[in-house]
Amino acid sequence: MPAPDVRGAGETGADTDEKRAGKEPANLVGRIAWCSFDWANSAFPTVIVTFVFAAYFAKVVAVDEITGTSQWSYAISLSMLACALLGPLLGSVADHIGRRKPWVLAFTMLMVAATALLWFAMPKSPVVLHILLCFALANFAFETSSIFYNAMLPAIAPPGMIGRLSGWGWGVGYLGGLACLVTALLLLIQPNPPLFGLDAATSEPVRATALLVAAWITLFSLPFWLLTPDAPRSTISLTEALRRGVVTVAGTLRLLKRHRGVTLFLIAHMIYTDGLNTLFAVGGIYAAVTFGMSFDELLIFGIALNITAGIGAFAFGWVDDWIGPKRTILIALAGIGLLGTGILLVQSQTLFWAFALPIGTFLGPAQSASRSLMARIAPPEVTTEMFGLYALSGKATAFLGPAVFGWVTSLADSQRVGLSTILVFLAVGAALLMPVRVVRVATRGVRAVQLSGF
């Protein structure tokens, strides 16, 4: 007999989807505005974490490239560990309070402020620790804001469109990252002499990308704040919500011990997401150091990769609703693993492009299908808490991937050897996901998903 899902006593997967279906989802404008937040905040991981600022820090700010790579990886690890520890509790508190948007706003403002401070990352800076602290704080705020944003998905989307809306959000996010990269390329990196009176001798055009990202997030998140509906606020106080949150998290963690299917999904998600996060975090550094890409080339590469990623996220949104999120995740992980193996073996920059660009087609689906699977199985009354646990499963060992990459890179004095560790995380995560059964349940004419045991 399959184990029941993580739901209240006597509540089935169909029961939960009945509750969701009974709630009025957001209208088209509200759903588009929800996706616009992906457009806004994707500038941070694209420009800061992956393509521009990471490579700038490793090549220009740090004492040398290998040390810079390791330091950047450790900063990501610590910020994700902090998010993993606080995410479930904050999510549970938000569930008791009701509203999610104020939490998104608070952490987004923190991300914007910390990102803007990266402007002070001077070449060969004597205050590298301060720079890393600002970056770690911004990355923590980005990851934490996503918990509350993702938790809005089940209420925003009709039950039969969760996979598509999640995929479209990721697709819009990739396009937003692409647009920000193009803006950085045309206005900051390429002009010679630099525009706006920027001094190339002190790397001001590259440092100014941090200011661009901060302004981008502030401006383009406005539709989300103004047009996307939120749950009503409850009448309980913040202190009472915190007390209830601690009790609820403890109860949910005990409950997960009895439900192997959900627990196994969260563990699998923890492992393969660790590999994906590491790939995002060090991909730009790998391209810059191993294949000698300049900042201009990195931006062009980032633009091209975001195009393929956006196409993949949009297209696989339909695939998710058609064949189910588990199969979609496995297809995506297999594609990334095969193409990633090619990247480790090639020597020329041309072949690197040939293998790297198609990876983008699978990056979005691996993430969006995971989000839609969590949205489908999370009980409505503890949705944000479940997304906190989902974030925990994506962050609990997120410090491990970059740390292992940095450690292996330093030990072997080779980024190729370091990057190979990512393939191990993807393979183990996929293997753990394989036994999890996803059972389709008919609900008001909509195909719902219930995660069972194995």
Outline:
With 454 residues, the chain is mostly helical.
Mean pLDDT: 78
Shape: globular
Helical residue percent band? over 70%
CATH architecture: Up-down Bundle
CATH overall fold name: Growth Hormone, Chain: A
- The figure for the number of domains is 1
Order of helices and strands: HHHHHHHHHHHHHHHHHHHEE
| Low-confidence regions | 1-22, 440-454
The oligomeric state is single chain
Read across the widest sheet, the strand sequence of neighbours is 1-2
Fraction of residues in β-strands: under 5%
How many DSSP E strands?
A: 2
Please name the fourth-level CATH homologous superfamily: MFS general substrate transporter like domains
Feature tags:
Growth Hormone, Chain: A; 76% helix; globular; 3% strand; 19 helices; 454 residues; two-stranded antiparallel ribbon
What this model shows, in words?
With 454 residues, the protein is mainly α. The chain has a single domain (17-451), classed as Growth Hormone, Chain: A (Up-down Bundle). Helices cover 76% and strands 3% of the residues. It has 19 helices and 2 strands. Strands 1-2 form a two-stranded antiparallel sheet. The longest helix is centred in the N-terminal third of the chain and has 33 residues, at 65-97.
